[in-house]
Amino acid sequence: MADTFSPNGRPHHPHGPTSKRWLPTLLAALWAICFASVFIWQSTSVRSISIFRSNSRLYQSIPRLRKNVFNLTDFGAVDDGRTINTGAFERAVQAIKARGGGQLNVPSGTWLTAPFNLTSHMTLFLAEGAVILGIEDEMLWPLLPALPSYGYGREEKGPRYGSLIHGQNLKDVVITGHNGTINGQGQYWWTKYKRRALNFTRPPLVQLMWSNDIIISNITLLDSPFWTFHPYDCKNITVSNVTIIAPLIGAPNTDGIDPDSCEDMLIENCYISVGDDGIAIKSGWDQYGIAYGRPSTNILIRDVTIRSMISAGISIGSEMSGGVSNIIVENARIWESRRAIRIKTSPGRGAFIHNLTYSNLTFENCRVGVIVKTDYNEHADDGWDRKAFPVVSNISFVGVRGWGVRVPVRIHGSEHIPIRDVEFKDFAVGLSYKKKHIFQCSFVEGRVIGEIFPKPCENLDMYGMDGTLIKKAATENVMVDIDYDI
What are the TM regions of this chain, as residue ranges (predicted)? Predict the structure, then answer.
């Protein structure tokens, strides 16, 4: 006989037919109570899940960053990836302009559009899952005049295509979000470029010109047709927590960030993996850049991770005819790249490259670690000045580590463009290529402080850590067999 339990929890053994008569009734009651309990639990659980989900949405809700806030859907936008929303973006920007500034929220979804302009005192906020998608039809991309410091479009003479997101003569512009994406659908443009089917220079993804107080943060920039983010003659720019992606091969000229004649700029906490230079600091091309005369200066790059199998992680030039100065690069990891750090110029560029500080760098599996090239003979046209030689000086490398590097250093100055005042300290780069001249120099003057690896070239003075001169360089003009394949 099965045990039952009394209210006090103790088992007892009932006897007689009365217990048997009540047993079916008791079981039915227990079944009813259990069913009701399950129903109540389910209802409560659904409400709890709804509350949890609601809280998740609140956590990802778009913050109010401006007094005036607008939603893209209020202007008729459709997020199906097929409807062209250019008019909606333009109406939204005009509404913000009319109110003296505001925030435009782009909700989750795929928003196809042709290029549109921003306005001053504006925040463009891309929610999580939001994608601004550039249309694959160059007839809908406006043509803009050539940049004055380049003479004409970078690839073709004449006008150039305007960027997907554009702005000129603006102040206080923010592009941010919960890691939403701006997608240029670059494959369309790369294919046409390779087939020579374009009559004008390809467009950047985001370009702001003659503007101040710019913040780009917490977004992803994907598959730009050309240079990805191109601030031109701007001041006070911050790029923070931005991911920039393009195919490593087959995506020509997809530089990540190209400060061009810019002043007071911070680039930090970014991941960049692209088909050309990760970051390239510029300031105009040959005689046009010399005449425009706007340097790139006071730029800090820190805490970045970059990959560039075709070009370089961080470059200066080659278009630097307005000058480049006061550049600090610190805490940078460059991996699986053709070159890690590159400085490139040539006769005809004029101007200067000076006061560059590189510290706490890591090179992983790079073909060359540091390269300075002074014969990058690519010119805007045949009108360049054959006597316009740039001055390259005051460059330091401190705290550099690496492994899997084929040639750690190649500094190739020339009789007309010598490299002056170069310093190496706390430099140790492991090798993947056993060649005699792995530290290559020509027409270089500078110093090595303390022990470095690999053995430096004879062009450099050797100092102890206490500043004592140990060995004077034999000559600054020692020419080694330069490896032109790197």
Answer: 21-41
